[in-house]
Amino acid sequence: MKITYQEEKRIFKLDTAHTSYIIGITDDEGFIGHVYYGAYIRDEDVTYLLRTGERPLVPSVNNRERGAFYDTFPCEYPGNGLGDYRESAVAILDQNGNTAVQPLYTGYRICDGKPEIPGLPATFGTEKECQTLEITAEDAVCGLAFSLYYTVFADVDVITRSVRIRNTGKAPVYLTKVMSAALDMDAEDYQMLTLCGSWARERVAERRPIGHGRQSVGSTRGESSHQEHPFLALVNKHATEDAGSVYGFHFVYSGNFLAQVEKNQYDSLRVVMGIHPQDFKWKLNPNETFCAPEAVLTYSGSGLGTMTRNLHDLYRKHLIRSPYRNQKRPVLINNWEATYFDFDTKKLLAIAREAKRCGIEMLVMDDGWFGRRNNDDCSLGDWTVNEEKLPGGLKHLVDEVNRIGLKFGIWFEPEMISPDSELYRAHPDWAIALPEREPVRSRNQYVLDLSRPEVVDYVYEAVASVLRSANVEYVKWDMNRQLTDLGSVYLGAERQGELLHRYVLAVYELQERLTREFPNLLLENCSGGGARFDPGMLYYSPQIWCSDDTDAVERLRIQEGTAMIYPLSAMGAHVSDCPNHITGRVTPFATRGNVALAGTFGYELDITKISEEERAQIPEQVALYHKYHDLIREGDYYRIASYSVNREYDCWGVVAKDRSEALYTCVQVTARPNVHSRKLRLAGLSPEKRYLVEESGTTAYGDTLMEAGILMPELRGDYASALIHLKEV
Ligand code: DGJ
Question: So what's the pLDDT on residue 56?
């Protein structure tokens, strides 16, 4: 049993292989207390931890100090406005204008497996793989019933949480805040680790001390965003890759989020994670239920590396649904950086022919194939093929590409509408906008109001009819601006606060419909690079475009941050041309290949125009991809050295689950003279196994390679790189 309940003591214990999570219910009024989360422990009854001083503070015994109780009690799902001054998990607005709410325990259910969350992406598992606890609670005064869900994925040391709230009263209630998880814990010496950035600089790791008060990351941009990421870890000050306590929190959602830590007067911490309350107000009619998205929690007592690998395994086994999850993805060539908007069938076929000669397997036609789209000022929404560029239409092009021997993929930006489009001229009210204000343009485009069912149907048919018209095997689903001017003519005054969440639900519905009608489609999500790289999207697409920045050096940091929590098989990574279109940096073609090998691998350049010397390397790189991709897709990932820290070189490795094989990649970002015996201590190997180092022909035991280390290959010049392949002998 992974979940147990001790009836007489009212204690729930949730165990994974290496962690325990304990919840205690108070005898009197049914407060749901958080007792413990951390390394696995044997005992269930550690409720003495809830003791809060000499005199019992439980209100039924000491009602005089009820205020102090609320202010200190470690709570599983803290209410609002009744004396707990820390961040609440839920807040409401009732018919009288009151905001107070307090969920109190009513019962529980335990089941094998995991119920789906209607309309939302979520982790999944069979009855053998996971078990779920539902704690039910209510606030009888405001007529709300709560279900707090906890699913235990024992094998990957993960507990997921989500919440449902039902209106059991007779009048509507507005939900103004619904967090998906809250966790009260001791402060110890934790730091806060987040992933932050910007366009072309997504998900760079940042570690900072936790001070008193509230510190958070969040998005109010309508998507998970380039800027901050729906992830937060509490990392013991001295924690390293392989030692120390780490609590990871990750949100399975693609819209606004809040991930916050609060340190209070007693130096305790409260973490909350959920939909950002800003601009959120959900009208809940009697008998209606609101389902909050899922939050993923993992604890590692052995450093950051274990947190990373727990999340990689969770997502590979229990979140990605695509049939491509365990399959090699076709090596693709995308024409965006090759041609931008300036292409036609002839150019694309020339690229396809050369690509075929080099072993590439799929051509992806990016932005610019529809309407009058010769720049980014127009035509979003008009998803009809531009026959001036593609004479004979899409089917002709796809058939020709297939005849050459390549698969075909296509780009869409389905959620958008250009002011200069037939669609906007016909339906100006389909754009998200506020009355009497001209909506803010970004990349000269507006966002479609996906809270309207007819808009969702239009978008779906527009995309699906293109896919039905030709043999399209891959879609890149892009989204190039963030949401603002939050107004919908459809929703009416009472429901404007629902727009952002309804928008996200509609994106999920669209991708659900698409993957159902085209089950073998390889879907890659994208948002102006990596602004919607989140677990919600991963549920629909097994890979997500990581960043518009394809510079090999910039990618070291972006991919390291991304791989902190996402499997390498999810990271869209391509070899592009130099000087790099964003940074102007020139790096060796081989290094661009080695860095892209840590992701889905493909090309983003005009293969007909690059030098013969570079073109000649493509078949070799494609061969490396085929040689290593099973290992990279399924293996355990280890960070060995980080250029962000040492400013000189980077090294990471992937080790097969059975420890029989490993691949390490080193990139020397800055060459330094007279560096004597630079060592790399490898990680993840079996100490007892003996390995052949393919490049040098030497053999050594795993313990030697990990403890004594190996000398870093001699690399000449800035940006030089090398692969080190180990095989058990
Ligand atoms: C942003 C994406 O990240 C790029 O790869 C490209 O598809 C452009 N949009 C096209 O507009």
Answer: 55
* The overall pTM is greater than 0.85: yes
Q: Specify which residues 583 forms β-bridges with.
A: none
- 200 CA → ligand 1 middle, Å: 12
Q: Which of 637, 618, 611 is nearest to 575 (CA)?
A: 618
Distance in Å, CA 254 to ligand 1 centroid: 18
| Inter-CA distances, 171 with 104, 220, 494, 579, Å | 20, 30, 14, 63
Closest ligand 1 atom, residue 547 Cα: 3
CATH number of domain containing 390? 3.20.20.70
In the predicted model, residues of the chain with pLDDT beneath 50 are none
Domain-located, residue 323? no
pLDDT of residue 676: 75
Say what the pLDDT of residue 283 is: 98
Residue 121 lies in a domain: yes
| Same domain? 178 vs 250 | yes
Amino acid (one-letter) located at 22: I
Contact 113, 132 (CB under 8 A): yes
Q: Is 87 in the pocket of ligand 1 (CB under 6 A)?
A: no
- CA separation for the pair 285, 288 (Å, rounded): 5
**Residue nearest atom 10 in ligand 1 by C-alpha distance:** 367
**Residue 571: CA count within 13 A, CB half-sphere:** 29
Pair 611, 665 in one domain: no
Catalytically active residues are: 478, 548
Residues 272 and 409 placed together within one structural domain of the fold: no
Alpha helices in 434-498 (DSSP H): 453-469
Domain's final residue, options 259, 291, 318: 318
Buried b (16+ CB within 10 A) or exposed e, 521-557: bbbbbbbbbbbbbbbbbbbbbbbbbbbbbbbbbbbbb
Q: Is 548 in the pocket of ligand 1 (CB under 6 A)?
A: yes
Query: Measuring from atom 3 of ligand 1, which residue has the nearest CA?
Result: 529
Q: Please give the distance, rounded to the nearest whole angstrom, from the Cα atom of residue 544 to the centre of ligand 1.
A: 12
pLDDT at 23: 95
Q: What is the CATH number of the domain that holds 72?
A: 2.70.98.60
Q: Which of 367, 527, 577 to mutate to test the pocket of ligand 1 (most atoms within 8 A of CB)?
A: 367
Q: What is the pLDDT of residues 309-334, one digit of tens each?
A: 999 999 999 999 999 999 999 999 99
Q: What is the pLDDT of residue 63?
A: 86
How many whole angstroms separate alpha carbon 602 and alpha carbon 550?
11
Ligand 1 atom at minimal distance to the Cα of residue 366: 7
Residue where a domain stops, chosen among 296, 318, 340? 318
Regarding the beta carbon of 545 and ligand 1, being less than 6 Å apart is answered yes
User: What pLDDT, on a 0 to 100 scale, did the predictor assign at position 1?
Assistant: 60
Asked whether residue 208 is domain-assigned, the answer is yes
- Structural domain for 521, as ranges: 331-634
d(CA 583, CA 33): 51
- The C-alpha angle 4, 113, 34, rounded to 5 degrees, equals 40
Confirm whether 699 is domain-assigned: yes
Phi, psi of 516 (to 5 degrees): -75, -45
Provide the pLDDT for residue 57: 64
